[in-house]
Amino acid sequence: MKSRSLSLVLVPLLFLLPVLRAGPGCAPCDPAQCAPLPAEGCPAGSLRDICGCCAVCAAAEGELCGGRRAAARRCGSGLECVRSDDDKKSKTGVCACKSTYEVCGTDGTTYRNGCALKTASMAAQKEGGEAISIQNKGRCASAPIIVTPPGQVYNVSGSQVYLSCEAVGVPTPVLTWRKVLGGKRKAELLPGDRDNLAIQTRGGPEKHQVTGWVLISPLTEEEAGSYECHAANSKGEASATGAIHLVDSIDDIIVKTGMKEDEL
């Protein structure tokens, strides 16, 4: 009798199991009723819906996530649903990558984070290419680029002048200056033994960027001429040229540069 009574209790419970597994707001799971995934695939991958029944596209970076009960949408792998104070009432948010640092992919491309790399990898595989994985944290190694070349400076004898130059590369480039010369000697590495000339260098303002200056005080006829900014690292080198022009008067500076007298 006890065995028969126990079986009578278990039978209705078995019918309730699909409903219990489904959770609040979920109907019993029927895979035949599930909509197919898009033929072009899911940018952020697929996962089971909140009811644990159907395969659905995960929300990608920047897409809406969360929501109420069965309509809730979850973020893909490596993403989290970030909600602002205004979003807490509606229980919705936006998918954001858990990692915030740049990464270098095995394809030699720098990605803003690991999630962007994963999306690119899935797209590459869809096109029949190889998967992209993280080669290293941070930007990919690259030859220097001169982002701000030295300009053209006009001033009178005895004044203080400078040329500036900015370069970027990975690893951070080493910046040097040369004065372009005529004759057999093509360039003179600065500062040399000049008392009125100094070289200054500092990192930044951006990561892997370096800024350098040639400072001259006082300016003489000997310092007039062309100056080369040279950036180098293990991946290559780059250079750009500017010039310092010695003029006779402030009027000449105004004519050459188009500046007003009160700007000098």
From TrEMBL:
GO BP field: regulation of cell growth; regulation of signal transduction
SMART domains found in the cross-reference section: IB, IG, IGc2, KAZAL
Keyword vocabulary terms for this entry: Disulfide bond, Immunoglobulin domain, Secreted, Signal
Gene3D superfamilies, A to Z: 3.30.60.30, 4.10.40.20, Immunoglobulins
Annotated signal sequence range: 1-22
Residues of the IGFBP N-terminal domain: 22-98
GO molecular function, one term: insulin-like growth factor binding
Domain annotation Kazal-like: ranges: 89-142
One Pfam family hit: Ig_3
Start and end residues of each Ig-like domain: 144-245
Tree of life domain: Eukaryota
Subcellular location(s) of the protein: Secreted
One GO cellular component term noted in the UniProt record for this chain: extracellular space
Protein name (database record): Insulin-like growth factor binding protein 7
Species of origin: Fundulus heteroclitus
